[in-house]
Write a structure and sequence with these properties.
This protein has 612 residues and is α+β, with helices and mostly antiparallel strands. The protein contains 23 helices and 17 strands. The model has no long low-confidence stretch (mean pLDDT 96).
Length: 612
């Protein structure tokens, strides 16, 4: 099959053993790659165990898996996934990353990398095609990611290598530490950086020389047809011109889809000051792009003077919300500076901003004793210095940073105010509001990794970006609907699972009929439109089985009170009916409402019975 290299690289950091294993191509056809293939490997490891390895333990493997499309000569196919049991949530953890690191792994001849064990001292892994080696990383331990990229890049054999690294947050086991790559791209969510930190794996460098794929001319024609279609998409134009920050104005002014003050306010004065248009007019100096992506949504910025002086990667929408609207900060330069700090520390900005926002809320409500708070830090909404200093304390796990490093759920539980933490299953909700788009409610409640906007982007679907060919169309006219939204949401969840497994960016929405033809070529087996959703159903259901094995209960499928307050502004006081949506969702999924378990009929339909 032309989409796979047919090889998995396995590295044991305890024994220093490096092995290369053939990938079973029937398994590859079944699970496609990315988080799907990672879930298969993890399920096979734990399904018969009575005791599952804890997230921060030598036996909790880290999976870095490419999709079947990753690195192919298509457009916007740079995506790959880091997966493991999450230290933040205790359930299935996955984090999608762009840039060039995934394609380079495939060019080196591997469909995935499995990291086992724990090193006895800091190390980094160097991959140069067939040559794979483990090196001492003591000289780089303690460095931020930017300096790590620079210094490791000077020591490795091939200076054209791509690099991923953790920062101090990962080294210190902050539970939402992320894995960074050059250009500000991140495997941001669920704490995969803490897994690397526990394993004492500072970085991975990859160079691959084989970019040849045995693809027919038809594949090129399909790729061009997909580009011709997507290039006319208005959302793509916005993201290309302004980055994801281009959504800020609409999110704040028209939809109420950018949470404010720990999700408690409906309107933000001067919100336009952190918008993509403002960024373009003030600090933007260029764009950056992932492998073979024509959209170039990444931002390059420069602040030429003052205390926020920098020249680095710019903030995305989620960070503008996390450090901006969520904390009532409308100073764009300050938010950009905090973003670069978080990237350098290797810290998920969604979880970091949310956790700090919960602290500010607790302080404002006079729930946190003064003795628990750091001196000379106000810990109040709107205070930029508080944000910056708390990021530093969290990355080092010093003072109040110790509890902040555990995440918003742990922080809120410490002060008996769990209702103030906007999270599901321990994962902080991304900054799209289910009060603005009702379909997000059931998506957040049921996502395999906790609250997730990539496992079904209802905020776009309910604005008209739909896929009726695979059943993810016919969304209700009202964005506040609670009943008609559920059926297309289920299809959209599964369709986006497919994207996660094949390595395609969700901004590049290849028409489903073209995608089916492309998959037919790279899998060497006929793929229909129905198969696209069936793949997603299979992967979604496998992750549900994993979570059940890890002790997940359906009782965590709720949205906390802080996310369900009626607000003024564009959401017009609407609040989603989560219970009603969940009742309908379970019927559509054919899962048991009380236990959360897929029915035997559903397991058979999606082709998982033989893997139990």
């Amino acid at each position: 099959m032309s989409g796979f290299r047919g090889m998995i690289l396995r590295v044991n950091l305890t024994t220093k053993e490096i092995s290369k294993e053939k990938l079973d191509l029937d398994i590859a056809r079944t699970f496609l790659g990315g988080s799907g293939l990672a879930a298969y490997f993890y399920w096979e490891k734990i399904k018969n165990l009575d005791s599952i390895p804890e997230p921060l333990s030598p036996e909790n493997d880290l999976y870095f898996m490419n999709g079947v499309f990753t690195g192919l000569p298509s457009y916007s196919t740079p995506r790959s996934n880091f997966c493991a049991r999450s230290p933040l949530t205790g359930i299935w953890g996955e984090s999608n990353i762009g840039g060039k690191i995934g394609p380079y792994l495939k060019f080196a001849g591997y469909d995935g990398l499995i990291i086992e064990g724990v090193a006895d001292q800091p190390v980094f892994l160097e991959i140069n095609d067939d040559d794979v080696s483990i090196h001492d990383a003591n000289d780089f331990w303690g460095l931020g990611t930017y300096e790590t990229f620079e210094k490791i890049g000077k020591t490795i054999k091939n200076k054209g290598s791509e690099i991923v690294s953790i920062g101090p947050a990962g080294e210190n086991l902050v539970k939402y530490a992320c894995i960074m790559t050059v250009g500000g791209r991140a495997a941001g969510r669920t704490g995969m950086g803490a897994i690397m930190g526990y394993k004492k794996l500072k970085a991975i460098t990859i160079f691959g020389s084989n970019r040849d794929f045995d693809l027919p001319d038809e594949y090129d024609h399909l790729t061009k047809a997909a580009y011709d279609y997507v290039s006319k998409d208005y959302a793509v134009e916005i993201f290309s011109e302004f980055g994801t920050a281009g959504y800020v104005d609409a999110a704040l002014e028209y939809f109420g889809d950018m949470p404010i003050k720990n999700w408690s306010k409906g309107e933000l004065e001067d919100g336009n000051k952190i918008a993509g248009t403002t960024m373009s007019e003030t600090i933007l100096i260029g764009k950056s792009t992932c492998y073979r992506c024509p959209i170039a949504c990444g931002r390059e910025i420069e602040i030429k003077e003052g205390k926020y002086k920098l020249k680095k990667d710019g903030p995305e929408f989620e960070t503008l919300a996390a450090f901006g609207s969520n904390l009532m900060i409308t100073n764009l330069e300050a938010v950009a500076f905090a973003n670069c700090l978080a990237n350098d520390f290797g810290m998920d900005t969604i979880s970091a901003g949310t956790t700090i926002g919960v602290l500010f809320d607790l302080v404002e409500k006079k729930i946190v004793p003064t003795s628990d708070l750091p001196k000379n830090i106000n810990c109040t909404f709107g205070d930029v210095n508080s944000l910056i200093e708390l990021l530093k304390l969290t990355s080092r796990k010093e003072g109040i940073g110790k509890i902040l490093a555990e995440g918003s759920k742990a922080l809120a539980e410490k002060y008996n105010k769990i209702e103030l933490a906007p999270q599901v299953a321990g994962l902080e909700a991304p900054f799209h509001d289910p009060r603005a788009f009702s379909g997000l409610a059931v998506m957040y409640a049921t996502s395999p990794r906790g609250a997730c906007h990539l496992n079904g982007d209802a905020y776009f679907a309910q604005q008209g970006v739909t896929f009726p060919e695979v059943g993810a169309g016919n969304f209700p006219n009202s964005r506040f609907d609670n009943e008609g939204v559920v059926k297309p949401v289920v299809k959209l969840q599964s369709y986006r699972q497919l994207f996660n497994a094949i390595g395609l960016c969700q901004f590049f929405n290849t028409p489903p009929n073209i995608m089916a033809k492309q998959l037919t070529i790279v899998l060497d087996t006929r793929i229909s439109l129905d198969d696209l959703v069936l793949f997603g159903d299979r992967l979604f259901t496998l992750k549900r089985l994993i979570n059940l094995k890890l002790g997940w209960k359906s009782s965590v499928e709720f949205l906390p009170k802080v996310m369900l307050q009626k607000l003024s502004g564009p959401t017009e006081g609407h609040v989603p009916d989560v219970k009603k949506q969940l009742d309908l969702w379970y019927k559509e999924r054919n899962y048991d409402r009380e236990t959360g378990r897929p029915s035997n009929k559903e397991l058979e339909r999606v082709g998982l019975k033989e893997f139990l």
